Amino acid sequence: MASIRKHRDKWQVRIRRAGLQPLSKSFSLRKDGAEWARQMEVKADRAELPTDLKALQRITLADLVVRYRDTVSVKKRGYENERISLTAFLHHPICSKRLSDLRTEDFAAYRDQMLQTVKPTSLKRYLDPIHNLFEVARHEWGVPLRDNPLGRLKLKAPSQRRERRLLSGEWERILEAARLCRNPWIEPIIRLALATGMRRGEVLALEDNQIDLERRSLLIRKTKNGHARTIPLTVEAVRILGQLLRGRLGPLFPITRNAFRLAWERLRERADLGDFHFHDLRHEAISRFFELGLNPPEVALISGHRDMRQLFRYTHPLREGIIDKMDRSTS
Fold first, then answer.
1. Catalytic pick from 17, 30, 216, 279?
2. For residues 196 and 302, is the Cβ–Cβ distance under 8 A?
3. Catalytic residue list contains 305
4. Residue spans of alpha helices (H) in 183-249
5. Candidates 199, 268, 283, 316; catalytic one
6. 224 catalytic, yes or no?
7. pLDDT at position 319 over 60
8. Does 282 qualify as catalytic in the annotation?
9. How distant is the alpha carbon of residue 9 from its chain centre?
10. Would you give the DSSP letter of residue 76?
């Protein structure tokens, strides 16, 4: 905030704002001083003035990471994975740097070092919360950072778009391998994922009070985009859920996310699935919904997509099916 006072035969203007270096200048005319003060206030609003290095010298990157992990990440649905990632990041020497000394060049060196052991897509996933951390620090915590040091960091990651669908015989091998699992919940989880197109976390979080078999509907309260949705159930989904609900209250699947992840990895190796991921069952289900003749709004109601462009990324009709339709249209 600017202050103007008469000092001898001059008008002295001082500007003080939290996180910025104090500014002062003298003028012969008061109106010139007031005009300069307005210009400096505008620059301050635009983050164009020098930051207060003393404030940044008191804070290390580790201080921000710990605060972000314990106050922001903890509120996220994917907190456990992000907590592990951020805690591991704290052991890197870059976290001992003070914010006054931290530059994009430091993260470029970190990027180059990490790329020797991890893929670009994995590194991007690790850096996403760090990038968001600086945005929160700048805009919500009042940390006087002029810009985000990760904002100009270049990291080219290949597209994660997948077109993997079940090949002939793979579904049978998946079920056969699932029946060999010691955990009895693996097979119904996999069957339900394909019958509904639900995400892994949505399936694992299911409870009995979300299901209405009479109306053939299922309420998904916690979703990736934060919007609850009610989906219609296929005959197969009703059959699976009917068996699971017999005499059960509360959670349908008493298994942790990590336990299921490990079980799936063993199953995938046993069934010789190659690069088939569990999330590909969602791709398969959505593609099958379209092949059944459902239109995009109807499929979006089931999948939960609010952006049609994202929905179509999950849609991979089998080429054989397209060829059959083309042949029928010309016969």
1. 279
2. yes
3. yes
4. 186-196, 200-204, 235-244
5. 199
6. yes
7. no
8. yes
9. 60
10. S
The percent of residues above 70 in pLDDT, for the chain, comes to 88
Domain ranges for the chain? 2-50, 57-139, 170-330
pLDDT at 23: 76
Indicate which residue of 222, 224, 248, 325 is catalytic: 224
For residue 187, which of 115, 260, 114 has the smallest C-alpha distance? 260
279: annotated active-site residue? yes
CA distances from 178 to 263, 264, 266, 315 (A): 9, 9, 10, 26
The residue annotated as part of the active site, out of 69, 282, 288, 316, is: 282
With a cut of 60, say whether residue 331 has pLDDT above it: no
178 sits in which H/E element: helix 170-179
Q: How far apart are CA 180 and CA 162, in angstroms?
A: 28
Q: What is the rounded CA–CA span in Å between residue 47 and residue 190?
A: 52
**How many Å apart are CA 279 and CA 292, to the nearest integer?**
20
Position 49: which residue type?
L
Calculate the average pLDDT of the chain: 87
- pTM score, two decimals? 0.63
How far apart, in whole angstroms, are the C-alpha atoms of residue 291 and residue 78?
Answer: 32
Reported as a pLDDT band with limits 50, 70 and 90, residue 57 is: confident
Residues 174/196, Cβ–Cβ less than 8 Å: no
Clarify whether 164 is annotated catalytic. Answer: no
314 classed as catalytic: yes
User: Class of the 170-330 domain?
Assistant: mainly alpha
Residue 89 has pLDDT above 60, yes or no: yes
The answer to whether the beta carbons of residues 120 and 157 sit under 8 Å apart is yes
SS3 letters across 256-298: CHHHHHHHHHHHHHHCCCCCCCCCHHHHHHHHHHHHCCCCHHH
Residue 318 has pLDDT above 60, yes or no: no
Residue 14 region by backbone torsions, left for phi larger than 0, else alpha for psi between -120 and 50, else beta: beta
